[in-house]
């Protein structure tokens, strides 16, 4: 029956979408873990010198990525059970501090780009699921690592906006064409400036879905220098003005 065929097609589409999301969720921590292993291997073989403190830091960071993989696998298994969904727990979160932590975790992937980021002196408290926000920011930083011009800086900043907290990411490249600003958030859409770059085209799609689930938003806008930037918004926590003294 046609109706039955349509139901089967919808199920197949949903399965394919879930598989793509799962694949991308695991790819980012694997990429970071691989980068740290390469750093440790280069130090061990004498390719590049490293201090004992560097080695200890890289080892700890690699172990953290293994833990991140375990947590994501647990979430995937939870979602696969009938009647369940991925856990989403919103709580007050220090936006600047968590952003700094994610940047440090992702630093091996970003090592070819100078980073312009200063953690705000005052604590910007937002209402978010911290693990999910880390995934969103990880998606965006991985995207920058792939597509920002080699050797060019990546800029990140956050502040209190009009009733929300805002965080931006941009680089000194030509940016995303305006006509692609919405399409880029659709599943399986990839930028074509670097056809050889591997990727599923699911990262920005997943980032938007996760952020919206937390009550936030993500969009692209001009960066004022001829390019474009990603702008994220998140609801402020219940503290006055979303700011706590540092």
List the helices and strands and how they pair.
Layout: H1 2-44, H2 52-80, E1 91-94, H3 95-106, E2 115-116, E3 123-128, H4 130-147, E4 154-160, E5 164-171, H5 203-213, E6 217-222, E7 228-235, E8 243-244
Parallel strand pairs: 2-4
Antiparallel strand pairs: 1-3, 3-8, 4-5, 5-7, 6-7
Helix pairs in contact: 1-2, 3-4, 4-5
Question: How would you sum up this structure, described in words?
Answer:
This protein has 246 residues and is an alpha+beta fold. The protein folds into 2 domains: 2-80, Orthogonal Bundle (Helix Hairpins), CATH 1.10.287.130; 91-244, 2-Layer Sandwich (Heat Shock Protein 90), CATH 3.30.565. Helices cover 46% and strands 17% of the residues. The strands form 2 sheets. It has a 5-stranded mixed β-sheet with strand order 2-4-5-7-6, covered by helices on one side. It has a 3-stranded antiparallel β-sheet with strand order 1-3-8. Strand 6 and strand 7 form a beta hairpin. The longest helix has 43 residues, at 2-44.
Quick overview:
The protein is α+β, with helices and mostly antiparallel strands and 246 residues long. It has five helices and eight strands, in the order H-H-E-H-E-E-H-E-E-H-E-E-E.
Written as H for each helix and E for each strand, in order along the chain, the element string is HHEHEEHEEHEEE
* Strand-residue proportion: 15-25%
Shape: globular
Mean pLDDT: 78
Structural class: alpha+beta
Low-pLDDT regions = 191-200
CATH architecture of the largest domain: 2-Layer Sandwich
The beta-strand count equals 8
Overall radius of gyration = 19 Å
Helix count?
A: 5
